[in-house]
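Hey, I was hoping to borrow your eyes for a little while. I'm sending you its amino acid sequence along with the C-alpha cells. Take your time with it, there's no hurry, and the full record follows here.
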Amino acid sequence: MFLDGDKPIFELVDDTDSVVKLYKTPEGVEKIDMPVIVLVDNRTCLAAEVMAAIFKASKGAILLGSPTLGDNKVRDFIEYDDQLVFIAVNRIRMLIGDDFAQVGVTPDILERNGADSAGITVEDKKRLVQGGITEEEKQDLQLLRKIGGDIVLRRATDIMLGLKALDIQTK
C-alpha cells in the first residue's frame, strides 16, 4: 500500500534465530495516495501491531493513540499430553522501521484519555440552530455527533477534517 513492491518487510524467526519465513511487499499493488490515520492503543497486538509498525516505518499513515502492546510473538496450538496448548512458536523480526518487541509501536501523535473534550462546541450548536452553517459543515458536525465520547476517534476525525479543509493530500 505504501511501499514499493518486492521489498522485505519482516521475517518470522524461531528460537534459534533461524528465518522460518520472509514477508515482502507484493508487486503490482497500487500505492495509496491519500491521508490515512491508524488508531492504536495498548490492546493493539498481533497482526494489527505488525501493520502499525509497517505503516509507521513506511511513513504511509499517521498513527494516533497510545503505544501498542509490544508483543512480537507468533503463537500456535501444539498438542501436548492429549491437550492443545497455545504457545509462542516464532517471533517477528522487523526489517523496516524499529523493533517493537517489549516496547510497542509509538504513535506519531500521542493521545491521553481526558486530554480533549468530545462532542460539538457551543458555538457550533448556535451556528447550526441559527442556520449560519454550510451543508458541508453540517455533515462534519453530524459525523462528530456519531463519534460521541471516543476521544481518540474524535482527535483522528479532527485531523482528517483539518486535512480536508486545507485540501491536503499526502504525496
Q: What stands out?
A: The chain has two domains: 1-110, 113-171.
